[in-house]
Amino acid sequence: MIRPSYELKRYTLPQLLRLRALEEGDRVALREKDLGIWNEITYAEYYEKVLLFAHGLLSLGFNPGDRLAILADNIPEWLYAELGAQAVRGISVGVYQSSLPPEIAYMLTYTGASIVLAEDQEQVDKLYEIRNEIPQVRHVIYEDEKGMGGYRDPWLLSFQEVLERGREHRTKHPEAVEKLLLSASPEEVCHLSSTSGTTGRPKAAMLRHRNMVHMGVALQEVDPLAPTDDYLSFLPLAWIGEQMMSVAMALTGGFAVNFPEAVETAMHDLKEIGPHVMFSPPRVWESIQSNIFVRISESPRFNRFVYERLLRIGYRAAEYRMRGRPMPLALRLAYWLSDQLLFKPLRDQLGFLRLRRAYTGGAALGPDTFRFFHAIGVNLKQIYGQTEIIGIAFVHRDGDIRYDTVGKPIPGTEVRISEEGEILCRSDAVCAGYWERPEATAETFREGWLHTGDAGYLTEDGHLVVIDRLSDVMRTQSGEIFSPQFVENKLKFSPYIKEAVVFGDRKPYLAAFLNVDPQTVGKWAEDRGLAYTTYLDLSTKPEVAELIQKEVERVNRDLPETLKVRRFLLLPKLLDADDEELTRTGKVRRGLIARKYGPLVEALYSGQEEAEVETEFRYQDGTVQRVRARVPVLTLGEGVPA
């Protein structure tokens, strides 16, 4: 199905799937791993499931404009349901599978979803817990029947029952779905995608078919993908980044979307698939880099020596490749040897051997992590966008990659910087606004321009530099503007630091909350015979505090004097989305953390040597344990209260 990009924009997403089923129905569209076996699904089978599910929705009284919410892991049934609802001119709603019942109740009530696809017993039980709060939900469809035998309730239907109802409905009304599908316009809203909600409750961006298709087409004008390419879908499909890849990019580019057996096996399954393209937020790349560090640290001393020497060669070679400059002959030969000895086997172990390009977005990736992946031969590119502009508006081009920018606009995207320094964007990917939020829509979408809320600037050659959220940009006591996120990313490059929250607005110096990485710090403690029981116990060890102090001192050496972190403490618990300290996409909710841990923030600036904190540990069974702990406050350098 090779058509000009302008022609693809004339279709809706289900219409694109229909075209692929008609023209290349025997080609593999999806794969799902089940019981260790990769099962292939062709475009013809994909479209057939979408049609049957759509007929099943019509049999349940689902009408054009109705909302179907999906609460599931990455499974083909998510796509069948999403495109099935869109095929009958309904609207799909993505809900994060990790959401707690109150969060689910909010999204279902806010969007007015009348039918919910819940993957399994766990998700169904969440819906039962909030059933009285969601009276508009007429039916719940479950996909995994394990554990559901004892549920006898007309409210519930299995996915297979819906498909059977679909077959019966198609027999009676054979053209009902395709009539609606073919009459749909690309201008119609097809999906509601929740924003990150860093400053409050998430809003639902109204995505149109045209928005999704434009983004898929425009990105592939920069980085073409082949129909024979593979992609592994393992990030939440409620996130705009996964919608961008598994729906918009897959239907416009035609590559195969692969679903892992489980979230926990995703990295292992990635090695089996060996994808050609990969998209992940910074936390995934940071985790991979951290795991590599752990493996190297466990290797013999000679191996570590070789690794460090070859990595230096990789860093030098990366500077040439990123800028598209030819390497000197000696460096080219040295890198070839390094690649054969270390980098190529390492990429093979990670599943990156066939990886032609990889993307990171959703938050800033630290420049040191960025340079590391280029050093080992991963063509990692920073992207910039938002839910409101379908995830990508800027991307690096091959041979023009800089770790301090997010690249140039993708085709069809206009950009300008307001007098206040805010990044404004305009393109066919800008969504229709926020569902049921007219005031927020009017504030964010003005005269066709998306007001991103981010501060940034354009370089002379058109690269965009993103500083931080406008609301997060801070000033030192002397009036110097700085981005706390920039300092946080520098800190998080340390393999021992998992999360960082920097303070310093109108303060005499910068200070930080830090989370130690339980994997790398735990391994460090074990290697030294340092016994511990819990994360709380590990994070309060004096030896761990000394380790992290050295890491902060190392980071400080590369920072301007005014941006050096002068005081820090180690939080006794990991920041968690379930505690609303992080968004579901892993972004820090800075304001909430400052309020929640107010006494600790005060301790950073009052000269206290330790502070007492009472915190909650929330377990998977819903129980909550309150723990009181005394946290040391560490000081670096001079010029701070004693």
In words, what does this structure look like?
With 642 residues, this protein is of the alpha/beta class. It has three domains: 5-214 and 236-256, Rossmann fold (3-Layer(aba) Sandwich), CATH 3.40.50.12780; 279-353 and 355-425 and 437-469, Roll (Luciferase, domain 3); 474-635, ANL, C-terminal domain (GMP Synthetase, Chain A, domain 3, 2-Layer Sandwich). Helix content is 40%, strand content 22%. It has 22 helices and 28 strands. Strands 7-6-5-3-4-8-9 form a seven-stranded mixed sheet, sandwiched between helices. It has a five-stranded mixed sheet with strand order 12-13-14-15-16, sandwiched between helices. Strand 20 and strand 21 (464-469) form a beta hairpin. The chain is globular, with a radius of gyration of 25 Å. The relative contact order is 0.08.
Helix and strand layout, with pairings?
Blueprint: H1 5-8, H2 13-24, E1 28-34, E2 37-42, H3 43-59, E3 67-71, H4 76-87, E4 91-95, H5 101-111, E5 115-118, H6 121-129, E6 139-142, E7 156-158, H7 159-172, H8 176-183, E8 189-194, E9 204-208, H9 209-222, E10 230-232, H10 240-253, E11 256-259, H11 266-273, E12 277-280, H12 282-297, H13 301-322, H14 329-350, E13 357-360, H15 367-375, E14 380-384, E15 394-395, E16 408-409, E17 414-417, E18 422-426, H16 438-444, E19 445-446, E20 449-458, E21 464-469, E22 474-475, E23 481-482, H17 484-492, E24 497-503, E25 510-516, H18 518-527, H19 535-539, H20 542-556, E26 565-570, H21 590-596, H22 598-606, E27 610-618, E28 624-635
Parallel strand pairs: 1-11, 3-4, 3-5, 4-8, 5-6, 6-7, 10-11, 12-13, 13-14, 25-26
Antiparallel strand pairs: 1-2, 8-9, 14-15, 15-16, 17-18, 18-20, 19-20, 20-21, 22-23, 24-25, 26-28, 27-28
